[in-house]
Amino acid sequence: MGQETRISPSCLVYSVLTVFIVAGYSLVVSGLNVAFTRLNPLNDDYGRFLVPLIATSLIVMAFQPLHNRLQRGVNRLMYGERDESYHVLTRLGQSLESAIEPASALPLTVDTIAHALKLPYVAIMLRQQETFKTVAAYGTYQEGSVRIPLIDAGQVIGELIAAERTPSE
Fold first, then answer.
1. In which domain, by residue range, is 120 found?
2. What is the pLDDT along the chain (169 residues), one digit of tens a residue?
3. What is the pLDDT of residues 3-32, one digit of tens each?
4. Torsion (CA) 152, 155, 158, 161 in degrees, nearest 10
5. What DSSP string describes the chain?
6. Total domain count for the chain?
7. In a designed cystine with 104, which of 7, 99, 111, 127 is the match (CB 3.0 to 4.6 A)?
8. What Å distances lie between residue 73 and 19, 44, 150, CA to CA?
9. Which residue, among 16, 19, 24, has the nearest Cα to 32 in the 3D structure?
């Protein structure tokens, strides 16, 4: 069996940024060369010095905003909405407000968590007497799922169970 190769999000971001910088620099330099050739028919050293300087300045100014947007996009693609907790909680709140029955609150919560974090399995178990009973689940249970206690007033009232994504995801 061969070992699976994984591309890190940072590698993906910087690869795309490198392509953008090379292509952007080439386009800007070409465009400025055409413009300066028409404006400066003598084609002196002053014009040859300004073109790369202006092109580099434009690329540098575009780099940081592009890097931030690209990093957010790659993170969202790879990890779901884990970096956008406010958005996820707002969406969950709106879903819970529009729920017709209170009984649908836990399934909506489980569904929102699973989709926001791209998890294959999420469940909520509530304590009933001395055992726990699954009251809402998304996906199929997987061995090795993480169990997080749900605590109210210092008492464990249940568990949130979440399966980790596979290493290839």
1. 87-162
2. 455 556 666 677 777 777 877 787 777 777 766 766 666 655 666 666 766 777 677 777 777 777 777 777 777 676 666 666 667 667 767 766 666 666 677 888 888 888 877 788 999 998 888 888 998 999 988 888 889 898 888 888 889 999 987 766 6
3. 555 666 667 777 777 787 778 777 777 776
4. 90
5. -PPPP---HHHHHHHHHHHHHHHHHHHHHHHHHHHHHHH-TT--HHHHHHHHHHHHHHHHHHHHHHHHHHHHHHHHHHH-STT-HHHHHHHHHHHHHH-SSGGGHHHHHHHHHHHHHT-SEEEEEEEETTEEEEEEEEE---TT-EEEEEEETTEEEEEEEEPPPPTT-
6. 2
7. 99
8. 17, 44, 32
9. 24
Structure tokens, 143: 């061995």
